[in-house]
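Inputs:
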Amino acid sequence: MLSADRSRTRSSTDRSRSSLRALVRARERSRGLLIAFEGPDGAGKTTQRKLFKTWLKGEGHQVVTSKWSSSRLVGPLIKARKKVHALGPEEFCLLHAVDFRHRLHTEILPALWQGKTVLADRFMFTGFARDAARGLDFDWLLNVYSPLFWPDMVFYFAVSPEVSAKRIAADRQPKYYESGQDVTGSEDALASYRQFIGRISKEYDALALIFEFVTIDAEQPMYEQHRRIREAFASDRRRRWAKWNIEALTEWIDTFGDPSDAG
Amino acid sequence: MPARTARRALVAVEAARGRDAERGASKVRAALLSKWNDAGAGISHWDASGTFFELQLGNGRKSLTLSPRTLLLLYASDLAFRLRWEIRPAVAAGQIVIAAPYTETAIAFGEAAGLPRKWIVELFRYAPRPDLCLHVKDAKDGAPWRSRAMDGFPEFGAATVSPGQPSRKRSSPRCDQAVEALRRLKRESRCENLRRKTLDRLVKRLRHGKRTASADR
C-alpha cells in the first residue's frame, strides 16, 4: 500500500516536473543572457565588468549585476565569521554555496526570466577554484553546487600569480581567507597569498577547459581587454540552456512559483 | 585495576521534531551517566553555529522563504561547524558525543521536500558515520510548526520551505511528508527506535564492545 502511494506521488511529481520543463523551454527565446566574470584577485574583473556594463546599457540592454557573497541572506554572516577567522574549509564552502543558490533564486533567475542581461562578478567557478585550492574534493564541490547553472559566457581574466600578488600588495594587505592563511598556516599574509593564488590559478586553468571559458589576458592594456570582450560577445553570445540549467530552473519555479504569474 | 575510561563514540539522535530530538538526547545522556559514572557524554545541538538563529533575527524578517536546497546547504554548514568545534574534538578526547539531530533528519526532510536522495547523501559525505543512530518517536503534541521555527531543524524547514501556509495550521503537506519520512527511518533500518533496551545495549557496547566510529577521522 505504502509503495503504491509512493509510486503514485512519484508519477504526479514527474508529470509536474515535465510541465515545468516545458515552461522553461518556452522561455528560452525571450530570456536574458548570463555573463560571468572570473579570475584571481587583482585580475581587473570588476573594472572590466563595469566598462562592459556601461557599453551594454548603451546598446539598449537592461543590465543587472550580481556580486559574489553579496546575498542579504548570509552575506553579512559570512563577513562577520571571516572577520573572526571562524570558518573551516567545509563551512566556508557551504556558506558560499548558500549565498550562491539564494542569489541564483532571488536575483539571477528572476532577471533572466524577465529578459534582462545579468553580469555576475564571480560565479560558482570562484567557489570551485577557492575550495579546491583549500583541499576539498572536486566531485563533492560539483555536488554542492548542483544543479549547476552554466552561464552563456564566462570571461576568465588570466593573470600570473606574481602579477596578482603585486597588484594586491600595491593597495593593501591581503585578508586572512583571501590569502589562504587558514590552509597555509603562514603568519605572513603576502607570502601566503603568493602560495595560495598559485593553487587557485591552477584550478582556474583546469576549469577554463572544462567549462569553455573565454580567456582574456589580464596583463594586456585595459582597453585591449575591453575590446576583446566586446568581440567575443558579438561572435558567440548565446548558449542553449543545458540540462543542468533546466533542472535548476524547474527547481526554482517549483519553490517560488511560476514567475509568469507575477507579471 | 586501572579505572575504566570513557570509550569514544558518536551517537545520532533523530526525530521529526526538534524538541523530541532534545528529549531523546537527554535520555541517552542520562542513561549513560546513570549506569556508567565516568562516561564523558556531551550533546551537540542543532544550530550550535547560530546560523539559523541569526537568519531568523536578520532584518526582522517575517517571511523568510528558502528553497529546500538552500535549507539543506545551511544545515550542512551548521553541521560542519558542529563537527569542527564540538564533535570531532570531543570524540578525539575519548568522549561520547550525542548529536541531536545528525544527518538522517536532514536527509529525510530534504527527500520529503523533493530533493534527490543521492544529492543529499553526497552533501553529507564529509560527516563521519555514527556508531549508532537512534530514532525518537513523535510526541504528537499538536503544536503548530510554523510558530516554533526555532524549536528544531524540521520546524525551521517547515516554516521557511513551505511559506504561504497559514500560521495557525498545524503543518503543511511538506511537513507531513517530512514527518512520514522520519518515521520511515526505523522501517528502513537506518535508525533504531530509542527504547530502554536499546539504551542498555548501547551502554554495554560502549563499555565492553568494539567501537566502529570514525568521527575522529
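The CA atoms of residues 77 and 95 of chain A lie 9 Å apart. Flag for discussion at group meeting.
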